[in-house]
Every structure is written in structure tokens, then in C-alpha cells.
Amino acid sequence: MRIPCPYCGERDGAEFTYCGDASPVRPAADAGEAAFVDYVYMRSNPAGEISEHWYHGQGCRNWLIVKRNTRTHVISAAMLAKGSAP
């Protein structure tokens, strides 16, 4: 898989570490235990385009949000995670 890094350009997927779905939003501190259980353990497994966190550990060492289709593995976008909304 080739991942387009905003700093390094298109790079081999082996340079990156997959770090999970970028869409869950942390609940407020007073949300209660059930909200945190849902946040940590209850994840959907959608088919189609999703946003994911990737870490470019063998390159610029930036965190990225990558939009990838889970059916085809086609990557439609990649952006720096800092300051961006998934």
C-alpha cells in the first residue's frame, strides 16, 4: 500500500504504523462510565471510506489522518492530524 504523506510524498505503507479509527470522539469527563465503555470498546466495522490514524515513524514522524476505503484499500486523502478534524 502507498500512503501519501503531506511532507514526504507518497511512501510505502511499511514506513507507517496503523493506529486505529480516527472517528471516535472522547466523551466529556462527567459523561459517566457507560459512555467511556462505549468509547473504548464499542467500535463499528464499516465497509467503505473511513478516517484512520497513521504514524509515519520511519519518515517525518508525524501523525496523519488517512481516508481509506476498507473494501478496496484505495486512499483518497491524507492530512496532518494536528489541527484537523476527521
Question: Can you tell me about this structure?
Answer:
With 86 residues, the chain is mostly beta strands. The chain has one domain: 2-Layer Sandwich (Folate-binding fold). 10% of the residues lie in helices and 38% in strands. It is built from 1 helix and 6 strands; from the N terminus they run E-E-E-H-E-E-E. The strands form 2 sheets. Strands 3-4-5-6 form a 4-stranded antiparallel sheet, with no helix packed on it. A hairpin with a 5-residue loop joins strand 5 and strand 6. The longest helix has 9 residues. It is globular, with a radius of gyration of 14 Å.
Name the features.
globular, two-stranded antiparallel ribbon, 1 helix, four-stranded antiparallel beta sheet, mainly beta, Folate-binding fold, 86 residues
Briefly characterize the structure:
By secondary structure, this protein is mostly beta strands.
* CATH superfamily placement: Folate-binding superfamily
Helix-strand makeup class: mainly beta
Strand order of the largest sheet: 3-4-5-6
The percent range for helix content is 10-25%
CATH-defined fold name: Folate-binding fold
Number of strands: 6
Mean pLDDT: 93
Instruction: List unreliable stretches of 5+ residues.
Output: none
Cα distance, first to last residue?
21 Å
> What is the second-level CATH architecture?
2-Layer Sandwich
Q: Gyration radius, to the nearest Å?
A: 14 Å
Level-1 CATH class name: Alpha Beta
Note the main sheet. Answer: 4 strands, antiparallel
